[in-house]
Every structure is written in C-alpha cells, then in structure tokens.
Amino acid sequence: MAGFDKRVASYEAALAGLEDGMTVLAGGFGLCGIPENLISEIKRKGTRDLTIVSNNCGVDGFGLGLLLEDRQIRKMIASYVGENALFEQLLLSGELEVELTPQGTLAEKMRAGGAGIPAFFTATGYGTDIAKGKEVREFNGRPHILEPSITGDFAIVKGWKADHYGNVVYRHTARNFNPLAATAGKITVVEVEEIVEPGQLEPSQIHTPGIYVDRLICGQFEKRIEKRTVQD
C-alpha cells in the first residue's frame, strides 16, 4: 500500500508545481482553520498573479494577508473583506480585482465544482449587482440566477488529524470551507496537526476521504485569535 501514502517531507514538496497565474482554493473562515504554513510557503516561493478563492483574505500580516503584502494575488474571490485593511485599500484603489460572492453561494460553488457540477441556480443575489449578466430562470414562482461552479489548480486545506492515506478529520469549526475546497482542487494539499497510522481513524468520523487528497504534511500552527473578547 506504499503507493497510497500521501505524506511529503517538506512544504516545498507540498506545493511543487504551483506556478504564476494559477487558481488556488484556500480553506478557513476568518483565521479559523486556515492553512497558515502552506500560505507562508506560497509567500516564500514568490508565486504571483494568483487567483485566490477563500471566504476572506486573512488579516494584515497573517494568513492570506501575507500574499497581499507582496502583491502576489491578482484576483480575490471571496465573501468578506473582513478585518484586513490592506485588502480594503487595494480593492478601493483598483489594484486588486475582487469578486465578492454571497457566502453560501461561494460554498456551493466549491462543493459543486468538486462534485463535477458545472453550474447551479440560486435565488441569492437576484435583483442585485451580483446578478448582472447572469442567466435568470424562474422556479416555483421565484427568480433564480445561474452561478458557475469553481475549481482550482491547487487547493490548500487545514485539517486536525489524518492517516498516511490522506483521510482527514477536521476539528470543530475548522470544518468550514476546508472540506469543500479539498474536493475542488486538481492538486489538493492538506496540512494537519497530527498524522496517525492507518486504521487509527474511525471510518465514520472521516470528513474528507483520502481519494481527494494528493499531498499531506504535518505542521506546527500559531492559531491566532482574530478578535479577542473578554468580560470583567
């Protein structure tokens, strides 16, 4: 079964083949469950003109925000500008192409892409700028717009545990966009906190089957808190 072992020894090997101009799907929500080390490796590689698909673009100086600093992102497909001041600045100045997408629609675009569905109809966004130029059909008396699905050259994903074969388990709310992104990349790279021996994961608890995963690496994570709220 050695040929099914998805483990790689370095982050350089994990992102081998990533080139300028590619589309990268990134899991995570805010700073929860983001593939932070894979993002840092993209920064180190200096890959440019990327189209990044993610719920948001990290924060200033961390997560996908690191790639904004070096202007490595050409286009961002996201649902939220969030707490990233640089993202907002580049959007307003026209330096960064941004396609804002309703959050549920973005999730379904990835899910549909991973399932081989080229497009789908949704009522979300009808009558707004989101719908401009898109086909409209009526279902059950309600207008819907046609949304194309999304796939990427690479998907970068953060998991909690995985076995050698790339079967992945996510922890709590880190199971956000990660399972969706994992299915929709031509090459899916997963970084996890722990890699266990085959047979140690309960099959019914696996969230992403290893058939979707091409490369797997174990890393150390900072796990920043985006907003800390305390009470007296």
TrEMBL record:
Pfam families: CoA_trans. Keywords: Transferase. It comes from the Bacteria. InterPro entries: 3-oxoacid_CoA-transf_A (IPR012792), CoA_trans_fam_I (IPR004165), CoA_transf_BS (IPR004163), NagB/RpiA_transferase-like (IPR037171). One of its GO terms (molecular function) is transferase activity. PROSITE patterns: COA_TRANSF_1. SMART domains: CoA_trans (SM00882). Belongs to the 3-oxoacid CoA-transferase subunit A family. This is Dehydrocarnitine CoA transferase subunit A. The lineage of its organism: Bacteria, Pseudomonadati, Pseudomonadota, Gammaproteobacteria, Aeromonadales.
